[in-house]
Write a structure and sequence with these properties.
mainly alpha
Length: 119
């Protein structure tokens, strides 16, 4: 029971650094909120364009809409991951480490954006 969690098990200096980092990143996020808002609207625009393009192919019934939703939520994170991996490869000439983690974060960002927008 001595190791309750990562934050409580960390040395005191590490916890202080994490809290300071959280405060600094929160301050930065609040300062660039309009840019973040524009970025999220861009994600929504690309997603809606993808849904519209795929909507031509699939029927507008329960199964077609389900397939459309699944594809539109998986294509965009893989494309963004591919673009980032391609740029990384062009610069470093090696494979992007943690590519799947980047794709998961992209998917989660898309999910939260869609949930907050109500799509």
């Amino acid at each position: 029971m001595s190791n309750v969690g990562a934050l409580t098990a960390a040395p005191k200096g590490h916890r202080i650094k994490q809290v300071v980092l959280l405060l600094l990143l929160s301050t930065l996020a609040s300062l660039i909120m309009p840019v973040l808002d524009d970025f999220l609207m861009l994600i929504l625009s690309v997603h809606h364009a993808l849904v519209h393009a795929l909507g031509i192919v699939f029927a507008h019934d329960l199964i077609g809409n389900t397939i459309l939703s699944v594809l539109s939520m998986t294509i965009l994170p893989f494309v963004s991951g591919g673009i980032i991996a391609g740029a990384y490869w062009l610069i470093k000439r090696e494979v992007l480490p943690y590519m799947m983690e980047f794709i998961w974060v992209s998917w989660l960002l898309l999910l939260v954006t869609l949930a907050l927008h109500g799509s």
